[in-house]
Write a structure and sequence with these properties.
Elements (H helix, E strand, L loop, with lengths): L1 H21 L2 H16 L1 H71 L3 E5 L9 H13 L8 E6 L11 E5 L2 H10 L9 E4 L3 H13 L3 E7 L2 E6 H20 L16 H17 L3 E8 L9 H10 L6 H9 L2 E3 L2 E2 L2 E2 L3 E3 L10 H8 L10 E5 L2 E8 L2 H24 L1 H4 L8
Antiparallel strand pairs: 1-3, 1-4, 2-3, 5-6, 7-13, 8-11, 9-10, 12-13
Helix pairs in contact: 9-10
C-alpha cells in the first residue's frame, strides 16, 4: 500500500511538472516557431490552398448548376413577362371599356326614366287606383291640376310589408307635366310626403354616398338624372379669391372706367343718368346725337380660356393662384344627349362658369380692352355696349361720325364674335 501511494504521488508530481512545462512561455515559444516553420513551407501553403479551393468549388458547384439551368429558362421567362405585361394592358383596356359600357348603359337607363317621379308617403289602400291617387294628391297638396291623361302609368314599387308604405312610381306623358310637379314639390317641405327622381341603382348609390360620406357639402340633389353638389368650402374660397383679386384690380387701376357692370357702387342708373345728360346737353345746343346699342350674344360663353389666363398673367397674377385658375377653367368637357343617344365628349375651350362668384369678374377682365380701338364715345354695362357721338356741325361731320360709328360697330362685332383672333397678341393665338 505504501508503494502504491508513493507511486501515485510520483505520478502526480510528474503530471504537474509536465503541465507546468506545457503552459510555460518557453514551450509556447517553441510551438510558435514550429508552426511558423510549417506554415512557411511551400508544400503546406499549396496543400492549404488546394483544400480551400476544393471546398469553395464544392460549395459553388450547385449554384453554378442552378445558374446554368436558369440561363436556359431566361428567354422563356422574358417571353412570359412580355405576355403578362400584354395581358395586363389588355385587361386594363377591357376594364376601361367595361366602365364606359356600364356608364353608357346607366346613362341610357336614366334617360329612359326622364319622365318618372316617385311619390313617397301616400297612404296605401286596398284595391287602389294609383293614377287617381296621384291626381288627388297633386290637387290637394301641390295646388295644381294634373289631368289623368298626362299620366302614362302609376304603380307601387317595392315589396309589400306590414307597417310600411310603398312609393308610387309615376311616368308622365311629357316633361312639362313632370316639371310642373317638381316646381310645386317645395310645398311638401317639413311634411310626411316627398317627391324624388326615379334613379337607377348606380345613381342611387352615388347619391346616397355623396349625402352620407362627402364632407364640406352644403347640399346634394338630383335633377333630370344629373347629380348636383353644392360645396360650402369652395364658395367660401371663391369669395376670398374674388375679394383679393377685385381689390388688386382697383389698386393697379385696371378696370375700365367706362364699365359699370358687376361693379360695387355702380349701376345702370348711374350710366343712364350720364347718357341722358349728354343727350339733353347736345339737344339744348342744337346738336345731333348718333347712337348704337349693342349686346354680346352668349357673352360668358365667349371667354376664351387661353386668352383669359394670358391676361391674368399679364396684369400680375402669378402662381399658385394662376395655376388655380387654370385648374378651374381647363379640362372641362361637354356632350349632347338627344333621344337617348350620346355624342362624344368635347373639350370646352371657352366660357366661364355662370352662376359662380368669380365668373362676372373674369368676364370683365377679358373684355376690359374692348374700348381701346374705338373712335366714338362708349359706355359699357357687362356685355351691353352703347356707342354714341355728337354731331357738332351736321354739314361737315355727320358723314364722318356715321363712318366712325360703322367702323366701331364692325370692330366690336369682330371682337365679340371671334375673340380668339381679335383680342389676343400673336403669341397667344392658336
Amino acid at each position: 500500500m505504501q508503494r502504491v501511494t508513493r507511486s501515485n504521488q510520483s505520478s502526480g508530481s510528474i503530471n504537474d511538472e509536465l503541465r507546468g512545462y506545457f503552459e510555460s512561455e518557453s514551450f509556447m515559444d517553441i510551438m510558435r516557431r514550429v508552426v511558423s516553420n510549417i506554415v512557411a513551407e511551400e508544400s503546406f501553403q499549396l496543400a492549404f490552398k488546394k483544400s480551400v479551393d476544393a471546398a469553395v468549388a464544392s460549395a459553388v458547384e450547385p449554384f453554378n448548376k442552378k445558374l446554368a439551368e436558369f440561363e436556359q429558362y431566361a428567354p422563356r421567362v422574358t417571353d412570359l413577362e412580355k405576355k403578362i405585361n400584354d395581358l395586363e394592358s389588355c385587361l386594363s383596356a377591357a376594364q376601361e371599356e367595361a366602365k364606359l359600357a356600364i356608364n353608357k348603359a346607366n346613362d341610357n337607363e336614366q334617360y329612359s326614366r326622364k319622365y318618372n317621379l316617385r311619390f313617397i308617403g301616400i297612404e296605401e289602400k286596398k284595391d287602389e287606383n294609383c293614377t287617381e291617387l296621384i291626381v288627388a294628391f297633386c290637387k290637394e297638396k301641390l295646388g295644381i291640376v294634373v289631368p289623368a291623361n298626362t299620366i302614362d302609368r302609376a304603380h307601387r314599387v317595392g315589396k309589400k310589408s306590414e307597417g310600411k308604405t310603398r312609393a308610387i312610381l309615376v311616368k308622365f306623358m311629357n316633361y312639362n307635366s313632370k316639371l310642373m310637379v317638381c316646381i310645386q314639390k317645395k310645398l311638401l317641405k317639413d311634411s310626411d310626403f316627398d317627391i324624388n327622381e326615379d334613379l337607377t341603382y348606380i345613381n342611387m348609390k352615388l347619391f346616397s354616398h355623396a349625402r352620407k360620406y362627402a364632407s364640406n357639402i352644403k347640399s346634394t340633389w338630383f335633377s333630370d338624372g344629373k347629380l348636383f353638389v353644392r360645396d360650402s368650402l369652395s364658395k367660401i374660397a371663391e369669395k376670398i379669391v374674388y375679394i383679393r383679386l377685385y381689390n388688386f384690380l382697383l389698386e393697379i387701376k385696371f378696370l375700365n372706367p367706362l364699365q359699370s357692370g358687376f361693379r360695387p357702387g355702380d349701376s345702370t342708373v348711374n350710366q343712364l343718368t350720364c347718357l341722358v345728360h349728354k343727350i339733353y346737353d347736345a339737344l339744348e345746343r342744337g346738336r345731333e346725337v348718333r347712337m348704337v346699342f349693342l349686346d354680346i350674344s352668349k357673352a360668358f360663353d365667349k371667354v376664351w380660356h387661353k386668352g383669359l389666363l394670358y391676361k391674368l398673367e399679364k396684369i400680375g397674377v402669378r402662381d399658385p393662384l394662376l395655376s388655380w385658375f387654370k385648374s378651374c377653367l381647363t379640362n372641362r368637357k361637354q356632350r349632347v344627349v338627344t333621344d337617348g343617344q350620346f355624342s362624344e365628349w368635347k373639350n370646352i375651350k371657352a366660357g366661364v362658369p355662370q352662376g359662380s362668384v368669380l365668373g362676372p369678374l373674369l368676364f370683365l377682365i377679358y373684355i376690359n380692352d374692348i374700348t381701346e380701338n374705338l373712335e366714338t364715345d362708349c359706355f359699357l354695362y357687362a356685355d351691353d355696349t352703347s356707342l354714341h357721338d355728337i354731331v357738332e356741325t351736321p354739314a361737315v361731320s355727320s358723314s364722318k361720325i356715321k363712318a366712325a360709328i360703322q367702323r366701331d360697330v364692325k370692330t366690336t362685332s369682330i371682337m365679340t364674335t371671334t375673340p380668339k383672333q381679335a383680342w389676343m397678341p400673336p403669341q397667344v393665338k392658336g
